[in-house]
Amino acid sequence: MNTNRVKQILSSSADIEVKYNGASVWIDKVNEDGTTATVHLRGPLEERTIVEINELVEE
């Protein structure tokens, strides 16, 4: 995925499924460096992780 697509997903009201390493995640924000994003797993856990944007996959 690229930074522009992540920003589009963040600004969309649609529920767009995004995966990281096969796990479904919510994108919280694009980080200032423009190459990473903060995400957390869908579900009860709120643990946030910083990941490379190019490792996110839109389903």
- β-sheet strand percentage: 35-45%
Order of helix and strand elements from N to C terminus: HEEEEE
Low-confidence stretches: none
Decide which structural class fits the backbone. Answer: alpha+beta
Can you describe this structure in just a few lines?
15% of the residues lie in helices and 42% in strands. By secondary structure, the protein is of the alpha+beta class.
Give structural notes.
By secondary structure, the chain is α+β, with helices and mostly antiparallel strands. It has one domain (3-58). The protein has one helix and five strands. It has one helix at 3-11; strands at residues 18-20, 23-30, 36-41, 48-52, 56-58. A five-stranded antiparallel beta sheet has the order 4-3-2-1-5. Strand 2 (23-30) and strand 3 form a beta hairpin. The longest helix is centred in the N-terminal third of the chain and has 9 residues, at 3-11. The chain starts with a helix and ends with a strand. The mean pLDDT is 95.
Break the fold down into its secondary structure elements and pairings.
Blueprint: H1 3-11, E1 18-20, E2 23-30, E3 36-41, E4 48-52, E5 56-58
Antiparallel strand pairs: 1-2, 1-5, 2-3, 3-4
